[in-house]
Amino acid sequence: MDPLQMAHTGPRKKRARPMGASMATTPQDIKFQDLVLFILEKKMGTSRRAFLMELARRKGFRVENELSDSVTHIVAENNSGSDVLEWLQVQKIKASSQLELLDVSWLIECMGAGKPVEMTGKHQLVVRGDYSASSNPSPQKTPPPAVKKISQYACQRRTTLNNHNNIFTDAFEILAENCEFRENEGSYVVFMRAASVLKSLPFTIISMKDTQGIPCLEDKAKCVIEDIIEDGESSEVKAVLNDERYKSFKLFTSVFGVGLKTSEKWFRMGFRSLSKIRTDKTLKFTEMQEAGFLYYEDLVSCVTKAEADAVSVLVKEAVWAFLPDAFVTMTGGFRRGKKVGHDVDFLITSQGSTEEEQQQLLHKVLNLWKKEGLLLYSDLIESTFEKLKLPSRKVDALDHFQKCFLILKLHHQRIDNSKSSQLQGKTWKAIRVDLVMCPYECHAFALLGWTGSRQFERDIRHYASHERKMILDNHALYDKTKRIFLKAGSEEEIFAHLGLDYIEPWERNA
């Protein structure tokens, strides 16, 4: 077996250590003088620890048998930062503020590279928010810099697409969706906040002890986690997935233009399938719903990144034909680094054009696509921006910009064939596209809002209100204390106004 494969396997049964098995590294074998490693046996096992120590020494690392003041990095497995600090307390060892607490995944990556690799958030062990070193006779007042308290706000957490807790977050999202279908806003928020914070964790939860100190985990969320840890699944989620109402609403809302009110109406009328709804002569559909049924198969299939890029070219070509200086930015999940989505969103602005030119742009673009036979459906909503006096206090409020929800015909010849999700027998695919036109002075705020994720946006607006006495939305940032609007030409400036570290779009997948 490959040594790295062995390093990935689970803990071994403890056995007596052979005499001389953990010899210290000789000075001539050490390649990396600045690193002194100690591998924690707790939850790892004697034989696995001995194997990793020997492997690291063969690669030129200095590995100590016992913990000493010279150690710079403690490597642990299935332990949180709090667990390691508690172990140090029991050993009556004071942790240095320079000590790095790292997951074994870092060491394994080092072994693969044959040298130390960069330490990132996924490697660094997290100390729970309620951790206290008060029981230590020589307490460490501040944890090591690599160990950070988890914020209750998504705008203070870096959340990539690398989710270590899918089994829990998937369950929360199903429960949240069911709450949304039942218009239970309170429980919806509970489950979405729980899913959001777990997505940001650099470690996998394996026991209820790992949830201690993590914010946003209310009792109902913890019950779901405990259920999954003990039984491998949640009985509550299982009940939801088998619930007739949930299944019906899930199916009905998959149709473009169908919301909760229509779903409720169809469910009360006894409908349980789309085929029955489509053929019922008594039902009247909106133009949007008719388009949703007509292009249903295309619209429910995921949009790939290759397809989104092809749509981006199509949008830019049309926009630049009328406003050559316009900025066109793909927003939403694709800007956050996702490889698939359900639609493609674009934010458009222009610095040098007149207000009238901006107002007419989307009309001209739609007419162009109509002439080219590419426009399958459109719903243009005119701007009400001039009526706006203050940013909205509602965290989920829609903005006042001119916008268009449409369905475009994307020909397969525009897509790299190896990357597209072509449907057999067709030369094109119907794609959902949203276009938003905003004034140049609002561009940074609109870009932040339309990039998402939904929970990230909710939290950054709550943070602005509760922590900074400001109101933030897609149009502006208003300081209630100074009674002034704060200007921003970029997302970075908005974060700076709020006193937040800047978080890249790909780290906003909350």
What are the main properties of this structure?
single chain, 510 residues, alpha/beta, Rossmann fold, DNA polymerase, domain 1, 5 domains, five-stranded mixed beta sheet, four-stranded parallel beta sheet, 39% helix, 12% strand, globular, disordered N terminus
Plain-language structure description:
This protein is of the alpha/beta class. It contains 19 helices and 14 strands. It has helices at 3-8, 46-58, 81-90, 104-113, 166-181, 185-199, 219-231, 235-241, 244-252, 260-268, 274-279, 287-294, 296-300, 305-322, 332-335, 355-371, 443-451, 454-468, 491-497, and strands spanning 36-39, 62-63, 73-76, 100-103, 303-304, 327-330, 340-341, 344-349, 375-381, 402-411, 428-437, 470-472, 477-479, 484-485. Strands 6-8-11-10-9 form a five-stranded mixed β-sheet, with helices on both faces. The protein has a four-stranded parallel β-sheet with strand order 2-1-3-4. The chain has a three-stranded antiparallel β-sheet with strand order 12-13-14. Helix 5 packs antiparallel against helix 6, helix 5 (166-181) packs across helix 7 (219-231) and helix 14 packs across helix 16.
CATH top level label of the largest domain = Alpha Beta
| CATH homologous superfamily assignment of the largest domain | Beta Polymerase, domain 2
From the spread of the alpha carbons, the general shape counts as globular
Q: What Rg is obtained from the alpha carbons, in whole angstroms?
A: 27 Å
Biggest β-sheet: strands ordered side by side in the sheet: 6-8-11-10-9
Instruction: Give the overall average pLDDT.
Output: 86
Count of helical segments?
19
Secondary structure: helix percent: 25-40%
Query: What is the tally of beta strands?
Result: 14
- Helix-strand category: alpha/beta
How far apart the termini lie comes to 38 Å
Second-tier CATH architecture of the largest domain: 2-Layer Sandwich
Count of domain modules? 5
CATH level-3 fold name of the largest domain: Beta Polymerase, domain 2
Low-confidence parts: 1-25, 132-147, 418-423
The main pleated sheet reads as: 5 strands, mixed
Portion of residues in beta strands equals 5-15%
